[in-house]
Every structure is written in structure tokens, then in C-alpha cells.
Specification:
The protein contains four helices and 19 strands. By secondary structure, it is mainly β. It folds into two domains: 269 residues, no CATH class; 77 residues, no CATH class. The radius of gyration is 29 Å and the shape is elongated. The two termini are 52 Å apart.
Length: 350
């Protein structure tokens, strides 16, 4: 660590040239600009048909002057702003065909939501002599805390795009006081996530510790001047996909003028959230090695069926892209139940 490079952060030091591009002119933490557009179109080709088209678009732009991240939630030094923009698009297309006794209502809809945030940093770790890796943009996203004083927090850059495609149809048949309704729908959900950068953090308990920046061996004590440091690396791109299916049957029957009996059955299936890149994984504690060898062990790890390449020794591959066990002929319920207990709310067997 080049201690002379940190002199700019000392109290009373003029550092306007370092942080000038984002110095706020007011105490406002964020600025936001939002617009929206909507349109409706109705088309009647005949008395027995109707087409409706609706469109809604809502872009939003925002800049956070003092952002936070998972390592340091609150910053107080300007120069590390986080601009972001979002778009929301809804485009449903209902279709209806009518007759005296029959109604067929088909609907198609598309919803798209995009969000991306960026991180602007006044310096990178390598600029001030700190050795940091380039993976996950950790070198370009510094976070630094001097307890009770300076708090630098880089933004958390990410790109998220969600698409939802919906098609549903309901058929209704009316015969006097009796009505029969049959319907169903199918939805395809796409969730694309790219955590562009994760960042890293150095934490000091005092200014003397910060200015020294030495290890316990170098400063002659039993404690390092660096209280803590955090790095966060990984493959952070995901392409989640899922199907949702619904079927329904309903028959409202008007028995008397003041009594109507409704009976029906509804079935829904929420598909597993699989990852197209094969990066879904979990861990089965029952298969872990209690006393691993010195070289370590991967026993207990479970990867999805589309995991790229050959799983290492000790890693199990499932038969689904969700990355969890299924109850089938090749696995006992006891194994599946134990996994469900170890991963509540996420690794529930289907």
C-alpha cells in the first residue's frame, strides 16, 4: 500500500480536484427523471369480433450521488456516483369473438422490464498502490472506511432484463341459467442478470491505522493496522427461465333468482427456475465428508443437469436445470426430504 497516496483523504486536505466531477451542489442524494407513454387501440371488424391493443412504456433515469453497496452501505465522499436507468413496457393484446351463446376470449401479453446501474469511481485501487485483482471489476470499484470518518462506497453496477410472455384463452358457453367456462394460460418468464462488478473493501479503525497500513509483523504488534478486507469474486451472469401453466374449469349455475351455485377446478404449475448457463447449484449436508482430507472435498455439492463440462469428483449432477434433487425411482424420499430441510424455501423437491 502506497501510504503517500492516501494523504488526499486526511481531514482538511483540499481534494476538490480529485472528486470535482461529481461534487453535489445541494444535499440531494439522488436526481430522477421519469416519463411515460401509453396508447390504446380498439378495432371492431364485425359485430362478432373485437380487438384491443394497449401499450404502456415508462422509462426512468436516476443518479445517486452517494451510493452504497453490499460491503459498505453508506458513503459520505463524493466522486462515486451511480447513474441508472430503467424501462417498463407492457403490451397486452386481447381478442374476443362473440355470438349469442358462446364467447371466446383470447389474450396475449408481453411485459419487459430492464434496469441497469453503473458505478463511477474517482480512483481505482491500482492508482494508489493497492494490489487488487481485476475479476468482477474489483480493482475499479474501491470501498474504504475509516471508522467514524471517511466512508467511500462505489456503486453496484448491474444489468437486469426481465421478459414475460403470456397467452390465455377462456371459452364460455351459456345455455339458459347454466354457464360453462373452460380456460387456461401459459406464461414464459425470462430473467437475465449480469452483476457487472462486485467491488472490494478496506476498513480501518482509526486514522493512524490508515496512514500506517502495516501488517502485524511489520508494525511490531499482534494486530494488523488493516482491521478487515473483503473481496467478492465469481461468475455473476445468469439466464433464468421458467414456465407457468394454468388450467381451470368453472360452471356457475343459477338455481333460483337469489341463489347461484359456483363449482369448478383450477390447476396451476409453477415451473422450476432453471438457468440456461447451467450455474444453478446447491449443497446436500448429508453427503458432506465429516473429516475431509487435507486436499479438501467437494462431496455434497449438487449441480444442474446442464452444468457445462464434467462435474469434479464428489459433485452430483441432477436431472433438472434447477439444481436440486427430485423424488424419483433413483432416490429415496429420505434423501430428498433432508435436502429440503437444509435449503428451506429454495430447494423444495417437486
Amino acid at each position: 500500500m502506497d501510504r503517500s497516496s492516501f494523504q488526499l483523504l486526511k481531514p482538511g486536505t483540499n481534494r476538490s480536484h480529485l472528486f470535482s466531477r461529481d461534487s453535489p451542489s445541494s444535499p440531494t442524494r439522488a436526481t430522477s427523471v421519469r416519463t411515460s407513454f401509453w396508447a390504446n387501440l380498439e378495432y371492431l371488424p364485425s359485430t362478432a369480433g373485437k380487438y384491443d391493443i394497449r401499450l404502456f412504456i415508462a422509462p426512468d433515469n436516476q443518479t445517486v450521488t452517494f451510493p452504497g453497496n453490499g460491503l459498505n452501505p453508506i458513503g459520505n465522499i463524493p466522486g462515486f456516483s451511480s447513474p441508472s436507468n430503467s424501462d417498463f413496457v407492457v403490451s397486452p393484446l386481447p381478442r374476443r369473438y362473440l355470438s349469442q351463446r358462446m364467447i371466446n376470449d383470447g389474450r396475449f401479453g408481453y411485459v419487459r422490464t430492464t434496469t441497469n446501474t453503473k458505478a463511477e469511481s474517482a480512483f481505482s485501487w491500482s492508482d494508489i498502490g493497492v494490489a487488487e485483482g481485476a475479476m468482477s471489476n474489483n480493482n475499479e470499484l474501491p470501498s474504504l472506511v475509516i471508522q467514524g470518518s471517511v466512508s467511500i462506497a462505489s456503486g453496484f453496477p448491474r444489468d437486469i432484463t426481465q421478459n414475460s410472455f403470456f397467452f390465455g384463452d377462456v371459452y364460455s358457453f351459456v345455455d339458459g341459467a347454466h354457464t360453462l367456462r373452460l380456460g387456461g394460460s401459459i406464461t414464459r418468464v425470462q430473467d437475465n442478470i449480469n452483476l457487472v462488478g462486485l467491488g472490494s473493501l478496506l476498513r480501518f479503525l482509526s486514522w493512524p491505522d490508515f496512514l500506517l497500513g502495516l501488517s502485524a509483523k511489520d508494525n511490531g504488534t499482534t494486530f494488523s493496522n488493516v482491521f478487515s478486507s473483503f473481496d467478492d469474486f465469481g461468475l455473476t451472469v445468469r439466464e433464468y427461465r421458467a414456465w407457468r401453466v394454468r388450467r381451470s374449469f368453472r360452471t356457475p349455475n343459477r338455481i333460483t333468482r337469489s341463489l347461484t351455485l359456483n363449482a369448478g377446478v383450477r390447476y396451476e404449475r409453477l415451473g422450476q427456475f432453471g438457468d440456461n448457463l447451467g450455474r444453478n447449484a446447491t449443497f446436500d449436508f448429508n453427503k458432506a465428508v465429516a473429516n475431509p482430507p487435507p486436499a479438501g472435498s467437494l462431496a455434497g455439492y449438487i449441480v444442474a443437469s446442464n452444468f457445462p463440462g464434467t462435474p469434479p469428483a464428489g459433485v452430483a449432477r441432477t436431472n433438472n436445470t434447477f439444481g436440486n434433487y427430485r423424488k424419483d425411482k433413483t432416490q429415496s424420499p429420505r434423501e430428498s426430504d433432508s435436502l429440503s430441510r437444509s435449503c428451506p424455501g429454495q430447494c423444495v423437491p417437486c
